[in-house]
Amino acid sequence: MIKTMTHFTKLTWVLLLGNFAIRTSYFMVWPFLAVILYERYGLTAVEVGGLLSLSAVFSTSIGFFTGYLADRFGRLPILMLAIALGIIAFLGLAVMTDLVSFMAFVALATMPRALWDAPSKALMSDELPDQNHRELAYQTLYFLVNVGAAFGPLFGLWAGLNGNVGLFAFTALAYLGMGLGVLIFWSGRHQVAKSGVDVPAFSTWLSILRRDKRFLLVLAANFIVFVVFAQSDSTLVQYLARENVPDLAFLISSLIVMNGAIIVVAQFPLLAVMRNWSIENRLLVGSFLLLISQITMAAIHVNSYTGWLFAMAILSLGEAILFANLNVLLDRLSPESMKASYFGAAGLCSLGYAFAPFIGGVILQSFGGVLLFLTMAFLCLLVMVIYQFSTRFAVFTGHSESLCNT
Predict the structure, then answer these.
(1) 165 and 257 inside one domain
(2) How far apart are alpha carbons 331 and 121 in whole angstroms?
(3) How much is the pTM?
(4) Do 345 and 276 belong together in one domain?
(5) Rg (the chain; Cα; Å)
(6) Averaged pLDDT for residues 279-292
(7) Which part of the chain is the Major facilitator superfamily (MFS) profile domain (predicted)?
(8) Domain span at residue 207?
(9) Is 285 a domain residue?
(10) What CATH number did the domain enclosing 72 receive?
């Protein structure tokens, strides 16, 4: 594995570390924006939640289009736009004092992540023509993203973000450094190769997506996966609170720590074990573990501390397998001339996180926690069926004809 990493280009490492920096800085700031909006501006919980949710949906929607633009006009302009907006957004958050301006920069701060995601993944694909090298790069990307998500909030607390907006300026500086790294190691051949000559018009691209049955089935399965996983971040806490579980704060903290620790520690050993497995079998195993975790949550007593830890351990193993391999599958399904476009379209699956709290809340309030987890278990079974059914369709190749007619 270490030997394979020696084949990563310098630009690949910049992109990997850039994703780590963006995710870390995002979680250094984002979890505490709710506190700032409440304490500084006196917004209600509904207003804060609505603002942050709308910003997240806006960001996801932007990502759908920027993937296509990265294929049409080149990777570098979109990556540099992400960097520029990141610098502007976080500097604005550091200096703005009135509510309207601050809210505008909150929305702007969600855009760099959406702009960077698809082009950076596509550029890594450009940099690594060998499939094994590319797969390890995506696995490393997921590992670094999780490390960033785990340590970002800790850095935010350490810096005292609640009373020190200087961290916003530090984040802007991190974006600047990342942009300089991309420019230093950029190779002009990518700009030539991705000049848009082989990329169809936007309406044609949408038509291509509609006819790519396997890709659409994978997107549907991934959306459901996001819905199920998100229940452990939102609805589970509501369920435990409604049931008056003792030492709730300690239990939730334990579950969060276990989830992050297992993903970080287990990802590469799992990759080694499954090295010779097909990508489809890996996703089926991950989905099955997710299914077992939901059944376990439905079956255990609500006050069982060890039971919840056991269920979260199974869920975390499933997450480590599923999410680490989704990018690999999407890379294999996407045409060479439209890598960023396909990654951008796949970003819509993250809307599952946006809708999950509402879906879970309705089920929890109407039918209780046990039925909530059984419903999620059924959805996991549905995911396994969709993944398996999708293999009946060959990787879509009809784009070549469409391009000729563009």
Answers:
(1) no
(2) 9
(3) 0.77
(4) yes
(5) 21
(6) 93
(7) 11-392
(8) 200-390
(9) yes
(10) 1.20.1250.20
